[in-house]
# Entry
Amino acid sequence: MYTLKSLDSEIILRWSKLLEYDFFRIYTQHLIWYSPAHVKNRADINSESELPKFRKSIYTKEIIDFIINLIEKGEKTKAEIIAEYKIPKTTLFKWLAKYKS
# Structure
C-alpha cells in the first residue's frame, strides 16, 4: 500500500480506525486552505436545496494556533490574515479573545 499512487477511501478509513488517527484531516485542511471564495449568484439564492450544505468553517486547533502565532510574533497583521486565508473578521477576533496567550 505504501508504494501505491492512490488508496481507496475505505482502506484509509480502516487504517484511521486501526491506528486511531484521522488521516482524512489532512485532506479537509487542504480543502479549507485552498478552496476559492464562494460567490453567491442568483442560482444559489433562488434554489432551496434539501441537500445538506458543506460547512467550510471547520478549523482545527492546529490551524487556530498557527494563525494566532503569526499575529503574536508580528509576522502578519490581522488584515493580512483575513485577506490571505479568507478567515472572517469576526471569527479571527473570537479566536484572539478565546485562545490568545
User: Anything to note?
Assistant: The CA atoms of residues 69 and 75 lie 9 Å apart. The chain has one domain: 9-50+58-99. Residues 9-50+58-99 form one domain.
